[in-house]
Design goal:
The chain is an alpha+beta fold. It has two domains: 2-126, Alpha-Beta Plaits, CATH 3.30.70; 134-263, 2-Layer Sandwich (Alpha-Beta Plaits). 16% of the residues lie in helices and 33% in strands. The protein has four helices and 19 strands. Strands 1, 3, 4, 7, 8 and 9 form a six-stranded antiparallel β-sheet that branches. It has a four-stranded antiparallel β-sheet with strand order 13-16-10-17, covered by helices on one side. Strands 2-6-5 form a three-stranded antiparallel β-sheet, with no helix packed on it. Strand 18 (267-268) and strand 19 (271-272) form a beta hairpin. It starts with a strand and ends with a strand. The relative contact order is 0.22. It holds the Pfam family Cas_Cas6_C. InterPro entries: Cas_Cas6_C, CRISPR-assoc_prot_Cas6, CRISPR-assoc_prot_Cas6_N_sf. Residues 130-258 form the CRISPR associated protein Cas6 C-terminal domain. This is CRISPR-associated endoribonuclease Cas6. Belongs to the CRISPR-associated protein Cas6/Cse3/CasE family.
Amino acid sequence: MQFLVKLKRGSTANIFPQTYQFQLSTALEKMLKGADMDSMLDIYGNQNNSRRVYPFTFSNLNFDYFKNDTTHETITHIGDIACLDLRILVDDSTVDYVHHLLVGQKIGFVGTEGNVEYTIVELNEIPKLDFKEEMVYKTVSPLYLVNDINTGEKEYISPDDNRYSMMFKKNLLKRFSSFFPELESIQHVEDYCPEIKFETLSNIQENDVVFQNNRGESTRFTAYNFDFKLRASPILQELGYYGGFGAQNMLGFGCVAIKSPSSFKQTFSGHHILS
């Protein structure tokens, strides 16, 4: 499911770090952890009480009026409205419960002059999309995917590396199998579904993304923005669109928009969310 979320600032404080993404992720995860799992179905219509939270991903915040301070790496929200594209891997039948769960919830960021606090005041569901066997996407937030090597270290691989397409496929299939207990024991999932094809279509922009937690501690990730074409079954396309492609999606990585000659645009509070 995809929601356009409207937030209203209630605090006088309005300056917070550009590295707010971890704090936003933590707030959203806390809300979804508080859900009654008996009231929710996963994207495939199954009840899955073994999950502590249904997977999600999200875009960056869009503000009505704001100022970026690149020197101090802060955002000053001059207005009072922000919006967010939120995706959750739950069934359409859950929409009323998600609305009940999220509207009225608070999201706060540790700011330089006090906590910057928002309230979710509106939640609009985007109708479910019709996925084809071949789709073209544009990253809304950088896509993060690493190769775990034998030493226990992580190797960052650019999407134009020959190994990337197999890593992408393996990650997508492993995530799909996690929804079905009978599939989780399959080894070497990358050997299945030979029809899956991944192809980059644009210049690749490397992003060093820094997250700062509530204690001011920072973690750095290397992720990439680019356009890509994916040939895969519609059920896998759906999984990637609503749950994010790649890894660490609940930190906001791998959120995508559909890109095609007849692509649509959704607007919310004057901001283009998808393109």
